Automatic annotation (TrEMBL):
InterPro entries: 5peptide_repeat (IPR001646), Pentapeptide-BTB/POZ_domain (IPR051082)
A Pfam family that the UniProt record links to this protein: Pentapeptide
Signal peptide: none
Protein name: Pentapeptide repeat-containing protein
Source species: Caballeronia pedi
Transmembrane segments: none
Entry superkingdom: Bacteria
Amino acid sequence: MNDILVGIPWNKDWKYENRRTGVVIIEQTTDDIRDTLSEAVAKNVRLGQIDLDGVPGWRAPLHNARLDGAMLADATLYAADLSGALLKKADLRASRLDEANLAAARLDGANMAGASFLKATLTDAVLRGADLNGANFYGADLKGADLRDCNLKGALLDGANLDGAIRNDNGWKAGSAIKNRHTGAVILTMQSDKLADELQKALLEKKNLQHLDLSSAQRGAAPLANASLAGASFVDADLTGADLTCADLSDADMRGAILIGALLKGANLSRACLRSADLTQAVFVGADLSGADLDGARLEQAKLRGADLAGANLRDAKVGGMER
């Protein structure tokens, strides 16, 4: 099982295979590995179970490799450098890509079900339409990644960095909230008309909604009218343009939240903490802001006609153009 061909130069016309296990084992010391693999893919060579774990320096040099449609199921690509690589519609089921560098890689439509990306780098990678069912992204860096139309059912994202990750634009797939416990955005993959119910369910389960990102100009206002979100933690959440008409946000922690242009008509924000929140152009007509902490909040051009501000803290709040 561990018959590794040590010291033998890898010729592009050769295929080193462990006949007993089917594992393709490669010893390669030069950048030729990138071109050779690309050529193998062009010839429809099956690379399933390929093992690059033993490549000198640990990082298989596959930067900018053209591997669209590659058959790499069960492959071991530990710490491989696949930055900028083209892996569209590649079969990476159950592959091991722990600590691999996939920055700016194209993985559109790839099948990565059950793959492991522990502490992998996927910054600015495009995974649009990819199957990530059951994939493990613990500790992975997905900052700026395009995750639109992905199947994230069962995906593990604890500890992953999802700052700036792009969600679905037009309607969310049925599913549950995927919570990032440490940094970045909470990605919600449910139908937009079920958003309020899913958030309320998350609160009942005592889930933390910090860094929640519901911003999307194309998707339109997040439908949260009449939602019961009392005591919710929305610290640094992006609720740009959200429809929170008559929502119950009493005692909610919304420090640093972005609510630009949000609709909060008749909403209950009593005792809510909105310190340093961006409420520019938000509509609070008839809202209850009694006892709310708005210290340092931006209220430029916000509409507060008929709002109850009894006992509210407006110290250092920016109120230029605010309507009352």
